[in-house]
Design brief:
The structure is a homotetramer. By secondary structure, chain A is of the alpha+beta class. The first copy, chain A, has helices spanning 81-87, 102-114, 147-156, 248-264, 307-330, 348-364; strands at 30-36, 44-50, 65-73, 89-90, 94-98, 128-132, 174-175, 178-179, 182-191, 194-205, 211-212, 215-216, 235-242, 275-281, 335-336, 342-343. Helices cover 24% and strands 23% of the residues of chain A.
Chain lengths: 365, 365, 365, 365
């Protein structure tokens, strides 16, 4: 059995979700996966977060989008970080994958984009690819992701509901002792200037004690296929998107708040967990730079979000991240992979009973 | 009624505390306060975290200690940050106070130290003073802290139990809708090299929804003395100390983990909340630099904590910060200050009932 | 004899200067000094860089300006850094002074502004005060700067030519072995959108070998009043202003380029030289935030500088910084201060002969 | 004609060089190149900076080395940056290459190391690969670097003199208007604890006005094969190594100083020039972490360099970088590449005449 947190009655926070409660509630954001689980040693894949302007498709052509990156723990192989931080923009889709496949995926993004008409004459590009280490269930040294998988994930990117759990870059990941994977959620914020959407997608793969709406849940029985002392640490990649008009400075601040949501799920923020949050605004379309350079030269018209409204977005980032992580766990299924290692899915019945017990008692009080 | 969280049966996390469950469990760390609440408009003070070598007292003389700073949100007036980050050491006691008094306190630290024999010929010094905005209950523009208050706080610094709640720099602060103040806690970590202590002291003054061991607690009734729309945002200063041998890089990483504890108490990490965490190691005594310069030149003998043991310290930082914040709230009393503004203390009975309801139900399940 | 570099025929770079070749060429920027040299032990002062909106004067009222800070070496006591970096704005005049007076000056800025009508009800303010260590010629522990000196410097701030050399915060500073002080310069950049001005003001106090237009100049004879091994290190504060419309991200990048100019004058970037560059745009007037908060909420209309035009501003930052540092040296006079220490002025005749020798030979070749 | 700067009598700075005046003067540091210039469109390659412990060779086995990264302008695709910064160590050889080949090279490093016995069971690795954009002379989208080229460069790595100019990653790069490439230099510093070596290797590819020992040199005639307005910007990668015992904090500070040397050669620090400096200490051998993790757990015995000695190393970084850049230019030859673009070599006779003219005149004065 799998279910999204909200289907189980578990609703972190107070803000309303968007229509499909996923990052795709942000207009223009699409998500696609390519999943690899054919051989016994491979439980991995790639997930693409796509916007038309980042692949040179649609009337706006090839553009960059304002972006900000917050690194809580830089123990990871994410590529594209220094340029994104320096220029405050992203110019390619965001790809998530297995740790040591990150370079093949980045190279595949170049191949994919270079083949598109809008990229004729492009001088250089800065692929942004993040990863977590799914090595407990998949042979990371095999680096099985090919150009075709990356193209498939980008081409499959669609609006609407997002496949979660053991899919794409979440095929082999684990979090808080259980099988996890991809999760997503969204929040609608009623700003003084009108409603905006904040969507989150996570690749959850970190340690700690599963905590659901504040209730610590018992860890799974130890995996006897695991060697004693074997490392059990991971990472978390959090991608945030919003149609609110934010510049890179405030997107960076927004991204940082997502770690508050991660904390609420019980993360122990271990030293070997590379935790990265990347935030993108779809409202700040930038005009393309000089031919072949790909630099933004100016943002288009429009008022940015006033500072007093940021706090609502910050809260949305915390809430949507917490729920996206829960979804990444609750939508995952027990999985066996390389070396016979097995990760149990979260026992949803037990968790629901545990949490609703708390809720029941609270409504009595 | 006031009580520490643990006296109420509320025990965040799993690691054991030190003897007095405070930052003073770290050998050599002393805490002192000076409290100002004589006039109706003034509810403020100053808190000093002291170590002998930072005031040139004791056989080791004047030294620096390894230190690291993690800034989650830099909206604040903390002084001493760039040098502490650049050199990775602290060379004065840490002072906490009211936002606009920070400069008078920093200057008072210079006056205090310059009068001591060990500082004859000192070329320059880098005071480290942090603050939160207690302006809801105190007239921050009065800047009432004097040289005498600072000297009194430093001179009063003692080992053993730490006064918490409405004392020193916590006299006028609020958190999560309620009156808060100073709080402290500690954890003992059994490392492979032996036990070490991690202590935390907070000046809590931030927004969000009070969450106790995962249970969201109802906010207090609105303060009718408050003008509609009046800002209700704050900050949090977190000081960590440990006798584990860590360098500034790992102290910075340790400091960052404390925000995980802050998240667990319900912080909304609002844009106007300047959140700073400063970590100090008492184990890395450094030799003094050239006369009058105050630069560390080398750490003394001893093995640093192995990376694999860091995670336990990281967990301790999360747990002790959560408990220190709860203590800062539970030890505070309802306070009326400038403009007749009033902050209610947390209703401990209600909170305990709420949380124990959850616990009771969980033990049934 | 003192003279500005350009009066001596020494013209770094290729871009044209503004009318008075100073930071005051940026419309709205004014500079004022208060100089203290009455007693034998005091050779110090304070320098204010002022804009009407930063003191709540003029039709625009109280506003913030976009700002960016680049720290090359954080060994210094500059205050206001974390908030300026977090919010990307400055909300007070910039003050420069002697290292240990920085806190008294910051406090004086609060006193000064709080007394002005535009600051009635202001909730908090973030003074920005930088410093260098003039301790070789002045008793830094005396901290002689008072509220009156700070008010005098701000009130004296005027457009037009800037007093340079041994004045204000430059009264006691030294650079590259010689007496230095305050220096300023400017460049006009013809952008695709029209001309903009970039102005620089430096408080020069750093070590290295004086290098004029690439020609290394012999160091001064050793100061026999100096104890053997006595530290001879300092810092450099560089303030840049421009009427080009840049956000905090690009102002930070602009600020960083000024260190290139500093390098060209022969800085050895020693470990004890706290080198800070702060850039402000007068074109990005921001609307004030909620009452009493002082936060920017949005920038006003107008196109930012296109990225392709940034390079000209970056070059201007290098050139104007180099020239401002030369002016800070060439306009300073031999000074004797605390302990009978003496700093020689640069021997201008010798330097001109040395450099023009090079120039003459180059024109022959 | 090509020659090293010093062979032409051009000697930046005052510190003595090591025996071969290259990064290989640091004991244990080896350099290798693979050069690709077979087809008319390809002028590129790969350069490897290798130490035994970074490839698991020799008695010490597989280790990490302390490392620090300073990013002056993050517009680039360097990989490995966040982990290197977070952990303060490097665990693979450093590879330099063409901008869009960076991911294939990083992947090839994984392949290369995984095949070695010391890496059996390695859990993950963090390749460090930097790049500059050699697109003016080479088809960067072809991404021609293969696993074999990377292996060849690493295997070719040798002590002793380093091939400079149009070789390896410098085959297609340009700087300051002229053909440039790889350059190297070193300095010996007599510290209080004994002599240490600081070596630098650069991949020079940046804009500005060639400045030799302070003398600006005329730019080359315009390349008529270049389209009007075509971008002419680049980057600089600077690798520093030293046998001085420095931790990552001080290595980062050391790395930053190298930009001072870059400034002295005439860099305009343009917005599109991704300028990165990476510093490594060979003296801080770290013990390997838990099996399969590759984390350092502790540094070995030995005193770090006292702070007062850092300044000499900082000066060495400035001087050696300036000379390495000059070598990268003076050892390069006129090259024609993709699209018939041609970069002229620096006319050494003219430059020597220009600079010695200055010198001659100075010696007369």
């Amino acid at each position: 059995m799998t279910a999204r947190a909200r289907e189980l009655g578990l609703m972190p926070g107070t803000l309303p979700t968007g229509p499909v409660n996923a990052i795709t509630d942000v207009p223009g954001i699409r998500v696609g996966h390519a999943t690899l689980h054919d051989s016994a040693d491979i439980r991995t894949g790639v997930t693409a977060i796509v916007h038309d302007v980042l692949i040179g498709e649609g009337p706006a052509g090839r553009r960059t989008l304002p972006a900000g990156l917050s690194v809580f723990n830089g123990f990871g192989k994410m590529v594209g970080t220094t340029q994104l931080t320096e220029l405050g923009v992203i110019e390619t889709p965001v790809l998530l994958t297995s740790t040591l496949s990150v370079f093949r995926v980045a190279d595949a993004v170049l191949t994919y984009l270079h083949a598109r008409p809008a990229y004729a004459g492009a001088g250089t590009l800065n692929p942004v690819v993040a990863e977590t280490n799914d090595g407990y269930l998949s042979d990371i040294w095999a680096r099985p992701i090919t150009d075709q998988h990356v193209a498939a994930a980008i081409d499959a990117a669609a609006a609407g509901p997002v496949a979660e759990g053991c899919v794409g870059a979440g095929t082999g990941t684990s979090a808080l002792g259980y099988k996890a994977g991809i999760g997503s959620s969204s929040r609608v914020c009623s700003l003084s200037t009108g409603p905006v959407v904040l969507g989150v997608l996570v690749q959850a793969n970190f340690g700690g004690l599963l905590t659901v709406l504040g209730v610590p849940c018992p860890p799974p029985p130890a995996d006897t296929s695991k060697a004693p002392g074997e490392a059990d640490h991971g990472s978390c990649v959090i991608v945030l998107a919003t149609d609110a008009r934010l510049d890179s400075r405030n997107l960076t601040r927004l991204a940082a708040r997502s770690f508050g949501g991660m904390a609420r799920t019980g993360s122990d923020f271990s030293g070997r967990s590379g935790d990265y949050a990347l935030a993108i605004s779809t409202a700040g379309l930038t005009r393309d730079g000089p031919a072949g350079v790909g630099l933004a030269t100016a943002t288009e018209e429009g008022d940015p979000v006033p500072d007093k409204d940021l706090d609502l977005l910050f809260l949305a980032a915390i809430e949507a991240t917490e729920e996206a992580i829960l979804n990444s766990l609750f939508m995952a299924v027990t999985t066996t992979g390389v070396g016979g290692h097995t990760r149990q899915a979260v026992p949803l019945d037990e968790v629901v009973a545990l949490v609703s017990g708390r809720s029941a008692r609270r409504s009595e009080s």
